[in-house]
Design goal:
Blueprint: E1 6-7, H1 13-22, E2 31-36, E3 39-46, H2 51-64, E4 68-71, H3 75-82, H4 92-97, H5 101-121, H6 127-139, E5 143-145, H7 150-159, H8 163-177, H9 185-190, H10 194-207, H11 209-229, E6 234-240, H12 244-257, H13 274-297, H14 300-324, H15 329-343, H16 350-361, H17 366-370, H18 372-375, H19 379-384, H20 386-415
Parallel strand pairs: 3-6, 4-5, 4-6
Antiparallel strand pairs: 1-2, 2-3
Length: 418
């Protein structure tokens, strides 16, 4: 039967001095220690944009000298960070063609928010994870990338969120990135306090429960499973402080079960539900039924009037979305035609059509990709950079087309001659 103990005690100057000479266990309010089945797990919680966390990671690994270091990052994110945000491989045409504009824009907005925090505090997001790898390498300690692939996490979050949830998520991200409010280093350090973090998680769960489940709960399980699956007896994990309670709980459960958790389900992309698949065809079928009813009961002239007003509302709002994105005049005009076409062809979206047109008219330049990492830190930069500007056209024209249909369908019903 395994024993479990968790200690989270403040460090005193005397204790720190003893660590240097007698190598007694380091105590810190950010460290959780677990003794499970004869193994020791040391969980170090960090703030992702904190200079103090970067320094603490190096100090704790150096003083603890664990058998292995597990880092809350995946291999692709580590590669991207070590290359200093090399965006040169991004292809806007493929992004738009594959209907991934919302996903990439959300990713860039989140990166923008983290980068702005890092600029204010003099440390880049995830620098403490890079420091963990660097320190482990310098000491010859094996290390593991223990997080789930970022693209899988983002795709699962997006696919598990409905239209309303997507709108709330994007609005929250944009509010964060374009906010002028600045957090002080003291406020950032407060994020490492478990009471503050738990309240944040509760707020996220209430606001967007499906996103919280994917971004926090599933990753707690995935990271904990990788930590538990390591073969060493003394493992130190460097993770964001918000993950610490969940990882501690899951490690304890895995120790009792005697095996890591099965993560196959949370690493697969969810298939669209039957309701979602039907919804894609529902609006065009409904519009066709309304116009067909009018044609049968009244005549061609009345049915054509209904068709014209629907197309004008649907295309007009899509054009307004393109206008708000400051799209090229040709793209704005094309939106009026593209929206009705996209509505009756569920396999494409108005954003795919307007995005491709905008990309053709205003092709991204090399300098747009080179400056992407800095342009995403400001409202002006999002519109100035042709890459992000195309994404804005994609998103806002799509939203405009959806709003247009939401208004047009009830209006068509009122036009019926009963």
């Amino acid at each position: 039967m395994s024993s479990t103990s968790i200690t989270m005690q403040p460090r005193s100057p005397d204790t720190e001095a003893e660590n240097l000479y007698e190598r007694k266990p380091l105590m810190s309010e950010n460290i959780s220690r677990l003794e499970l089945g004869g193994r020791q797990f040391i969980i170090l919680g960090t703030a992702h944009v904190s200079r103090e966390s970067v320094d603490e990671v190096q100090r704790v690994i150096t003083e603890e000298k664990p058998d292995r270091v597990c880092v809350e990052i995946d291999a692709s994110r580590y590669s991207s960070m070590s290359k200093k945000d090399d965006w040169s491989s991004l292809n806007i045409y493929n992004v738009i063609r594959q209907d991934k504009g919302f996903l990439l824009l959300g990713n860039l907005v989140l990166a923008s928010f983290q980068r702005r925090l890092g600029m204010n505090l003099g440390v880049q997001p995830g620098e403490e994870m890079m420091k963990a790898v660097e320190t482990a390498e310098s000491l010859g300690i094996p290390y593991s990338f223990s997080d789930r692939e970022i693209q899988i996490t983002l795709k699962r979050a997006w696919k598990k969120t409905g239209l309303w949830g997507k709108s709330k998520l994007l609005s929250a991200l944009f509010s964060a990135v374009f906010s002028t409010e600045k957090l002080s280093p003291d406020q950032i350090e407060e994020l490492k306090k478990k009471g503050e973090l738990e309240s944040m998680m509760e707020e996220l769960a209430a606001y967007l429960p499906s996103v919280k489940k994917v971004l926090i709960d599933e990753r707690d399980t995935f990271i904990a499973s990788n930590i538990f699956a390591s073969q060493e007896d003394r493992v130190l994990a460097v993770v964001g402080a918000g993950h610490v309670p969940g990882i501690v709980r899951r490690l304890t459960e895995m120790s009792q079960a005697g095996a890591p958790a099965d993560t196959s389900e949370i690493t697969a992309l969810p298939k669209p539900s039957l309701a979602v698949q039907i919804a894609g065809f529902l609006i065009p079928v409904l519009i066709a039924a309304l116009i067909g009813y009018e044609l049968y009961h009244v005549g061609v002239h009345s049915a054509l009037q209904m068709l014209w007003k629907w197309a004008l509302l649907n295309g007009g709002f899509a054009a307004i979305g393109s206008l708000l994105a400051l799209a090229h005049p040709v793209t704005i005009a094309a939106s009026i035609i593209a929206a009705p076409i996209a509505t009756i062809t569920p396999v494409i979206t108005v954003g795919m059509l307007t995005g491709m047109i905008e990309a053709w008219l205003r092709k991204p330049r090399v300098q747009d990709l080179e400056k992407l990492h800095s342009d995403i830190t400001s409202f002006r930069g999002f519109f100035r950079n042709r890459f992000t500007h195309i994404l804005l056209v994609f998103v806002l024209s799509t939203i405009g087309g959806i709003v247009g249909n939401a208004i047009a369908v009830p209006y068509l019903i009122t036009m019926l001659t009963l």
